[in-house]
């Protein structure tokens, strides 16, 4: 099965903003529900972006090897690990240095466990505002006690 890849900063930003993070010793997986790209027909599939930073793995050879191992582990996932196959989602996968030394079967088992755990994770209900703002008065946090009515100010006579 060919894997589709996230393309462009905008798609990565959406997954980072709205995704559920699942951490494992071998990698971090951030996952959101599948939505088609603009102008694209509805074809549910896994769209996964692999990100290996220079901070994580210093040498380009190691970064490329980590990418190839994880991509191959996803591509050849045994059906007994994921009976329904890869979920229809958008995901960012950030491998850790342990991916290079772990046995291939262990990488596949960890990926399958993370994907099933991410499917079952409750989606955080996010509002339209950042910071959990109060919709009645933005920028204020409600304390549960209603504000007292403002006292009328006396008018100044000219």
Automatic annotation (TrEMBL):
<dbReference type="InterPro" id="IPR020539">
    <property type="entry name" value="RNase_P_CS"/>
</dbReference>
<dbReference type="GO" id="GO:0004526">
    <property type="term" value="F:ribonuclease P activity"/>
</dbReference>
<feature type="compositionally biased region" description="Low complexity">
    <location>
        <begin position="135"/>
        <end position="145"/>
    </location>
</feature>
<keyword id="KW-0378">Hydrolase</keyword>
<dbReference type="GO" id="GO:0000049">
    <property type="term" value="F:tRNA binding"/>
</dbReference>
<feature type="region of interest" description="Disordered">
    <location>
        <begin position="119"/>
        <end position="158"/>
    </location>
</feature>
<dbReference type="GO" id="GO:0001682">
    <property type="term" value="P:tRNA 5'-leader removal"/>
</dbReference>
<comment type="similarity">
    <text>Belongs to the RnpA family.</text>
</comment>
<dbReference type="Pfam" id="PF00825">
    <property type="entry name" value="Ribonuclease_P"/>
</dbReference>
<keyword id="KW-0540">Nuclease</keyword>
<feature type="compositionally biased region" description="Pro residues">
    <location>
        <begin position="147"/>
        <end position="158"/>
    </location>
</feature>
<dbReference type="GO" id="GO:0030677">
    <property type="term" value="C:ribonuclease P complex"/>
</dbReference>
<comment type="subunit">
    <text>Consists of a catalytic RNA component (M1 or rnpB) and a protein subunit.</text>
</comment>
<protein>
    <recommendedName>
        <fullName>Ribonuclease P protein component</fullName>
        <ecNumber>3.1.26.5</ecNumber>
    </recommendedName>
</protein>
<comment type="function">
    <text>RNaseP catalyzes the removal of the 5'-leader sequence from pre-tRNA to produce the mature 5'-terminus. It can also cleave other RNA substrates such as 4.5S RNA. The protein component plays an auxiliary but essential role in vivo by binding to the 5'-leader sequence and broadening the substrate specificity of the ribozyme.</text>
</comment>
<keyword id="KW-0819">tRNA processing</keyword>
<dbReference type="InterPro" id="IPR000100">
    <property type="entry name" value="RNase_P"/>
</dbReference>
<dbReference type="GO" id="GO:0042781">
    <property type="term" value="F:3'-tRNA processing endoribonuclease activity"/>
</dbReference>
<dbReference type="InterPro" id="IPR020568">
    <property type="entry name" value="Ribosomal_Su5_D2-typ_SF"/>
</dbReference>
<keyword id="KW-0694">RNA-binding</keyword>
<keyword id="KW-0255">Endonuclease</keyword>
<dbReference type="InterPro" id="IPR014721">
    <property type="entry name" value="Ribsml_uS5_D2-typ_fold_subgr"/>
</dbReference>
């Amino acid at each position: 099965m060919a894997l589709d890849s996230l393309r462009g900063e905008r798609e990565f930003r959406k997954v980072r903003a709205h995704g559920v993070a699942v951490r494992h010793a071998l990698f971090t997986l951030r996952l959101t529900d599948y939505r088609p790209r603009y102008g694209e027909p509805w074809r549910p599939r896994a769209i996964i972006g692999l990100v290996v930073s220079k901070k994580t793995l210093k040498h380009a050879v190691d970064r490329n090897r980590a990418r190839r191992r994880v991509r191959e582990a996803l591509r050849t996932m045994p059906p007994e690990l994921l009976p329904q196959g890869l979920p229809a989602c958008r995901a960012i996968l950030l491998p850790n240095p342990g991916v290079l030394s772990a046995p291939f079967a262990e990488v596949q088992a960890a990926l399958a466990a993370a994907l099933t755990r991410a499917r079952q994770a409750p989606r955080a209900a996010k509002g339209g505002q950042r910071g959990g703002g109060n919709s009645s008065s933005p920028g204020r946090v409600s304390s549960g006690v209603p504000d007292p009515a403002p006292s009328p100010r006396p008018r100044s006579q000219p």
